[in-house]
Design brief:
The protein has about 425 residues and is mainly alpha-helical. About 65% of the residues lie in helices and about 5% in strands. It has two domains: about 1-30 and about 175-420, no CATH class; about 55-165, D-Maltodextrin-Binding Protein, domain 2, CATH 3.40.190.10. Helix 14 runs parallel beside helix 16 (about 355-365). The longest helix is centred in the middle third of the chain and has 33 residues, at about 180-210.
């Protein structure tokens, strides 16, 4: 235990005094904390939230065709103005060529040329990937056609308008989990785990690999227990990562509360800080255990590298293993069905369970015993992987020259076990 404490303190101090580590932490604190002040700054510069219609992009509407002659331009303008609130609606009698010229010369952003209640052409210069105006207008014209049909059949315009504007009230009650709400929490946790494992796992592997260039490590490895060294390195990196995240998100929380009144109470930022306590606890548990499993793997891999230049190639299998689990979870989340057999199996595999089980907890109903089994398997795996990684670490640090193969590593570990 004394050896572990000494190594842990030494490695942890190295993280806290590392200029890159401190610099990245401060940069993220300033950046993310500053983002929370944006609504306050915008609000102070523009106290009047009323939008001047002259500043809106122009949408032209033309009823200047023979078939569309029976369309009331005032009604058309009113309906378009209610539907497209972000546009300045201008009814024009110009021909199609003049309308096209105005769009290409940026005098108007888009235009609708109406042929009848059931036919129109939408003109725009560059069609954006997110432009839904044409589809939105389809519903508008469908309602206009129905209203005109009712008026033609003798129903008064007022009665037709009342029928078409009837509001349907509904309520949704989820008896399980709200996937829409929890999708955001799940995505943040998985993405954060992805970034931390790739960043700190690589740092652990680099630290171990660089130590092989120091002959003093031979004396240290033979005098100190490999488990103390490996666990000291990995746990110190885990604590450093958690402190970094706590500092960053703690600052963001404080800054957000200062500017809370300037943010939309139903927006993404507000939803992020309203994460349920139960979900937050599970997030921390799976986050820490998942990080430890992969950090031990990265450490063991780094110990068998002969040259630092070979490190990226050596850790590639570990990285690919994590990416496979990441892709399985992301594809399942996108499908909306988190109760698939693949995800259930992945919930008990220690290399994928940190992401898979948390996704199931957040987005579906999972029995308490299933969660307990998954956490137990993951916790035991952390210890087993850590012990095996420590043995590989002791063997790998003492090896020089050609990188040992997997078969050589297994054979050496068996011989060491037989001697004992």
């Amino acid at each position: 235990m004394r050896q572990f404490k000494t190594i842990f303190k030494y490695e942890f101090k190295n993280y806290l005094t590392n200029k890159v580590f401190v610099g990245v932490t401060l940069a993220l604190i300033i950046l993310l904390g500053g983002i929370t002040f944006i609504p306050r700054l915008i609000g102070s510069d523009d106290a009047d939230s009323t939008v001047n219609i002259a500043d809106m992009p122009v949408m032209l509407v033309s009823c200047n065709t023979v078939e569309a002659g029976n369309l009331d331009s005032d009604i058309v303008k009113t309906i378009f103005a209610e539907t497209f609130k972000d546009y300045n609606i201008v009814v024009t009698e110009e021909n199609v060529e003049a309308i096209k010229e105005k769009i290409t010369s940026k005098q108007a952003e888009c235009a609708f040329v109406l042929d009848s209640y059931t036919s129109y052409t939408y003109y725009v210069d560059n069609l954006s990937l997110y432009d839904t105006n044409a589809e939105t207008a389809r519903q508008v014209f469908q309602n206009m056609y129905r209203m005109n049909a009712m008026i033609t059949e003798g129903i008064s315009p007022e009665a037709a308008q009342s029928i078409m504007s009837a509001q349907i009230e509904y309520e949704t009650q989820s008896l399980g989990k709200d996937q829409v709400q929890n999708f955001f929490y799940t995505y943040i946790m998985i993405f954060a785990l992805y970034m931390v494992i790739l960043l700190y796992g690589q740092m652990v592997a680099s630290s171990v690999a660089s130590e092989k260039s120091s002959r003093a490590m031979e004396l240290l490895v033979t005098s100190a227990k490999p488990t103390s060294m490996m666990f000291g390195k990995v746990l110190s990196s885990c604590l450093a990562g958690l402190l970094q995240l706590a500092a960053i998100f703690g600052t963001v929380i404080v800054c957000f509360n200062i500017n809370k009144t300037y943010w939309d109470s139903d927006g993404i930022m507000a939803a992020f800080f309203n994460i349920p306590t139960e979900l937050l606890i599970y997030m921390l548990v799976f986050f820490v255990l998942g990080f430890l499993v992969y950090a031990f793997l990265y450490g063991a891999t780094g110990s068998v590298v002969s040259k630092l230049e070979d490190l990226n190639t050596a850790v590639m299998p570990v990285t690919l293993l994590f990416i496979v689990g990441f892709m399985i979870v992301m594809m399942t989340m996108s499908s909306g069905n988190t109760d698939t057999l693949l995800l259930k199996v992945a919930s008990y595999v220690p290399f994928t369970s940190p992401m898979a089980m948390f996704t199931r907890i957040a987005m579906s109903r999972v029995a308490a015993y299933e969660i307990a089994i998954s956490i137990a398997i993951l916790a035991v795996s952390v210890v087993l992987v850590g012990v095996i990684a420590a043995k590989i670490y002791r063997m790998g640090v003492l090896l020089y020259g050609k990188r040992p193969s997997i078969g050589t590593i297994i054979s050496t570990l068996r011989k060491e076990k037989t001697r004992r």
